[in-house]
Amino acid sequence: MIKINELNCDLKNSVITMGTFDGVHLGHQKLIKEVVKRAKKNKTKSVVITYEKHPLETLNLVTYPYILTEKKDKELLIKQLGVDCIVYLKFNKEMAEMSPEAFLENVLIKHINPKEIVFGYDTHFGKGRSGDYNFLKLKEKKYSYKSDIIQPFKIDGEIVSSSIIRKLIKLGKVKSAEKLLGRPYNLSGIVVHGKAIGRKIGFPTINISQKIRYKLNPKTGVYVTKVYAKGKSFLSVTSIGKSPTLKDSLSNNIETHILDVDEDFYNEKVKLEFIDFIRNEMKFDSVDKLIKAISNDIQYAREFYE
């Protein structure tokens, strides 16, 4: 039910927070930084409790594209904020049916016994998400901890949340998503062989195959992107879609043209950052019109960084 990511991590009397933390966006960062700050002040450990799999996967019994941050990336981002320990909960049917008090007593107190619990404004636990900060406050004396709540982080008067970021990604509004994440939205994968159609029309592409099938991808269209591979970064233009003019695939593909580079990237692990949306995917009347559109896409990408 519970898995400590670091060996020999002393959790007792620590300062903890808990949540899914999908995206590790600016709101999550505010909360986690506060936990780290309080732990250092109290000369104890800072602990982030999260889930091995998104709770929605257990509750809905289905996997579908919704994850903003893959597990390894999420862990790295959390550790970069100065967190001492990450604890993973195995969210299963048994945990989903726990009352708030059963969860508090049998999971948080029994396994961790924190000195302080710091919650985000929208953190819930227990069956039906019925446990919240008010419940924690009521149980302070019984379980000998202090609790506090961190108010939401806002940009332009709007609360930063994972659900809003997902909506932006689905709409292709990657610049707006970056503002809330504090970094460009990205995905990762392995470069695989394609049909080399792009090379035949003068625009060779790398075809990226994702390992994480439930990672949320931006909507179909063409984007200014950056590719990270071979220890370097490359300016690029990426198309997500079915390539209706040339092949009209049955499913969406991720095809990236790296500007001013003609190297072999096959079997390389790559990270792809989405910088700006250029245009929607469309079917052109001729290959010449497609070539013209791609040329315009590349010019847009160059001007974006001038």
Provide a descriptive summary of the structure in words.
The protein is of the alpha/beta class and 306 residues long. The mean pLDDT is 91. The chain has two domains: 2-159, HUPs (Rossmann fold, 3-Layer(aba) Sandwich); 185-304, Riboflavin kinase-like (Elongation Factor Tu (Ef-tu), domain 3), CATH 2.40.30. It contains eleven helices and 14 strands.
Which descriptors apply to this entry?
Rossmann fold; Elongation Factor Tu (Ef-tu), domain 3; 2 domains; six-stranded antiparallel β-barrel; alpha/beta; six-stranded mixed beta sheet; 26% strand; elongated; 14 strands; 11 helices; 306 residues
Write the topology of this structure.
Layout: E1 2-4, E2 15-18, H1 26-41, E3 46-51, H2 55-60, H3 71-80, E4 85-89, H4 93-96, H5 100-111, E5 116-120, H6 133-138, H7 140-143, E6 146-150, E7 154-155, E8 158-159, H8 162-170, H9 174-181, E9 185-192, H10 197-200, E10 206-209, E11 221-229, E12 232-241, E13 253-258, E14 269-279, H11 287-304
Parallel strand pairs: 2-3, 2-5, 3-4, 5-6
Antiparallel strand pairs: 1-4, 7-8, 9-10, 9-14, 10-13, 11-12, 11-14, 12-13
Unreliable stretches covering 5 or more consecutive residues? none
Q: What structural class results from the helix and strand content?
A: alpha/beta
What is the ordering of alpha helices and beta strands?
EEHEHHEHHEHHEEEHHEHEEEEEH
Sheet-strand content, in percent, reads 25-35%
Whole-number radius of gyration?
Answer: 22 Å
- Fraction in helix: 25-40%
What is the average of the pLDDT values? 91
* Fold-level CATH name of the largest domain: Rossmann fold
The CATH architecture of the largest domain can be named as 3-Layer(aba) Sandwich
Give the quaternary arrangement of the chains: single chain
